[in-house]
User: Which sequence fits this backbone?
């Protein structure tokens, strides 16, 4: 089946630094990828929709300048947490959608997630 | 065992029993629903999906039921096994856009050996 890979799986950084998380679709092209944030024992919260070759669409309440998303190719989207603070510590998960057809919306596949800890 | 989803986020069942996990979705216009399983420290994994033109869909050991009248979705797991222990999320979306899905509150399933 389709595979989505995230890197790094774990990252610890100092407050004030920026961290980049990569999301790759390994065996399919994904024009659309999604970034989620998950707090402990909580559901996934959609942060933004990443569209290849265009600007990301952010959900209400998500700071665009804080969470920079770049989808430069059909297999790679990156999330950069800028000037990270301890409250940004979370589990960040991406998903990618396979191409759909007239009768199929395509299927979402998720990465394993990236755990960010900001000291 | 059975959960009420948003109000009972944890469910414990004996190995071999059937499990029922419930989910109340929010948007009556949603026409595509997915159940995901998430093990500790890992990303969500697809279990089964259903479109709004169906009331029931069966997979391997799992059945999803959809009641559009009351905006309710349930996941039934037959003969629950220890490996089924995880958090289960339902997600709702739209088939015409195939766009992002919104996740409901998860239910933590613990299988007692």
Assistant:
């Amino acid at each position: 089946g389709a595979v989505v890979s995230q890197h790094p799986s774990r990252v610890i950084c100092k407050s004030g630094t920026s961290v980049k998380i990569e999301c790759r679709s390994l065996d399919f092209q994904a024009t659309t990828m999604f970034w989620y944030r998950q707090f402990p024992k909580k559901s996934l919260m959609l942060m933004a929709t990443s569209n290849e070759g265009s600007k990301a669409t952010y959900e209400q309440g998500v700071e665009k300048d804080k969470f920079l998303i770049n989808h430069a190719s059909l297999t790679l989207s990156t999330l950069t947490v800028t000037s990270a603070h301890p409250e940004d510590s979370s589990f960040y998960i991406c998903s990618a959608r396979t191409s759909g057809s007239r009768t199929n919306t395509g299927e979402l596949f998720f990465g394993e997630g990236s755990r960010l800890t900001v000291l | 065992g059975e959960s009420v989803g948003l109000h009972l986020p944890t469910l414990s069942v004996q190995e071999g029993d059937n499990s029922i996990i419930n989910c109340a979705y929010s948007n009556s216009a949603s026409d595509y629903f997915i159940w995901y399983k998430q093990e500790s420290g890992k990303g969500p994994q697809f279990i089964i999906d259903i479109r709004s033109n169906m009331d029931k869909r069966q997979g391997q050991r799992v059945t999803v039921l959809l009641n559009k009248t009351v905006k309710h979705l349930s996941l039934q797991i037959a003969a629950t096994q220890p490996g089924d222990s995880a958090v289960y999320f339902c997600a709702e979306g739209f088939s015409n856009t195939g766009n992002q899905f919104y996740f409901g509150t998860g239910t933590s399933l613990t299988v007692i050996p």
User: Anything to note?
Assistant: Confidence is low (pLDDT under 50) at residues 2-8 of chain B.
